[in-house]
Amino acid sequence: MLTAQRDFVVESSLLARISDARKRSDALFDIVREGSMYDRPIPERHRIIFYVGHLEAFDWNLLHENVFGLKRFHPQFDRLFAFGIDPVGGGLPNDQPADWPSLDSVRKYVGQIRAALDDKLMSVGEESVYMRDGFSLNTLLNVAIEHRLMHVETLAYMLHQLPTDRKMRPCSGPPPVAVPVHPSMIQIPAGETTLGLRRNGEAFGWDNEFEARALHVPPFEIDHYMITNGQFLEFLDDGGYRTRVLWSDADWQWRTEHSITHPVFWRRAEDAWLYRTMFEEIALPVDWPVYVSQAEASAYARWAGKGLPTEEQWHRAAYGSSGGCQRFYPWGDDAPNGTLGNFDFDSWDPVSVSAHPRGKSAFGVEGLLGNGWEWTSTAFAPYWGFEPFPFYPGYSADFFDGKHFVMKGGSPRTATCLLRPTFRNWFQSHYQYVYAGFRCIKA
């Protein structure tokens, strides 16, 4: 419902962020050769063409009528591009390229939406505020921006599976210099950690980030670095994928039914393992973090005689301190930059787990933000006093099913705004394609 109040303007930083987020998504689609826009790199996902229209359709469906009072100009596309696919159950999609509209018509639709919304956003004055379901336009714009940026990341791992000859490689700089990796564990003393955001605060958060609550965390040890490809290779060579006792019933059934024998980013070539980067195959980089499903991470942890951290354990190791204070970032309060971690689209691929020592936490744990999300053992579930967004009720609630697990941290393709300590990512435990690794704990 359209309402009006006084003394409001759209935050100028939000307008700049909208523009930047669009540039990020446009640049991502630019790496795909036009003849491949109807490909489906991951069987469980839509064809690439869907996402070209989806990002704008989401913004339009969020804002056009209920907020700005704009009339639809292409209701068929509004419906067609409204919803993505969750890779849990329901079978694989079976649509064909011919079932989708032309790329030119989708791009025209995108341009019309941007022009219509921008016209409204640029004319919002100080005498009125637009709201939906009790939420301000600033909140809704944060939703639109972060939704797009999350897709820029998830689309990256989808395009990662697209054959390299169907992509165009942009220029990139050299990787950072890393020191040799010597795996070890760090003792985390008992203490409190606060999960979640307070509703009466000014910070934006998604519905699953509320309400804040302090928890006591007993002492534990956690890996200094994320588990590397080299460490995971030891598990594989020791028969980890063939050892039934290391896998839960559901995970073993998934592994055997789908013949899972190695990480999806790896490929065996004669007597060596190769690694699929975004634009080429290289010799397996043993000091990069391994990207695996939560099921594979759990099996490794059992093999190592350890476990995966809970959400609160990971949070304590990342943001806590021996003095009891909680940091906003593992390294302190300084804004994220490229010397502190591998994030914010600086790289298409991971780097050595030891490449960013300046980003270590107060306890000395390294690489907690960027370079790969980190699986936890915590099933994705609502926080205390959870209330779904009325304009997006299924964003979180549809995944409170015990099959999805919380991931923390960030990847090379995670935007800076998503590096806040309360942000929660999640995927189901048998999904191998996401940029996610792990580290182990001993209680």
Write the layout of secondary structure elements.
Elements: H1 12-30, H2 48-63, H3 75-80, H4 103-123, E1 131-132, E2 135-136, H5 137-160, E3 185-188, E4 191-195, E5 213-217, E6 220-223, H6 229-237, H7 249-257, E7 266-269, E8 272-276, E9 281-283, H8 294-303, H9 311-319, E10 373-379, H10 394-397, E11 404-408, E12 425-428, E13 436-437, E14 441-442
Parallel strand pairs: 10-13
Antiparallel strand pairs: 1-2, 3-6, 4-5, 6-14, 7-8, 8-9, 10-11, 11-12
Helix pairs in contact: 1-5, 2-4, 2-5
CATH topology of the largest domain: paralog of FGE (formylglycine-generating enzyme)
- Please state the overall shape, judged from the principal axes of the Cα atoms: globular
Q: Approximately how much beta-strand content do the residues carry?
A: 5-15%
Proportion of residues in helical segments: 25-40%
What's the number of structural domains? 2
Q: What is the CATH class of the largest domain? A: Alpha Beta
Task: Report how far apart the termini are.
Answer: 51 Å
Main β-sheet description? 4 strands, mixed
Total helices: the number is 10
The average pLDDT is 93
Secondary-structure content class: alpha+beta
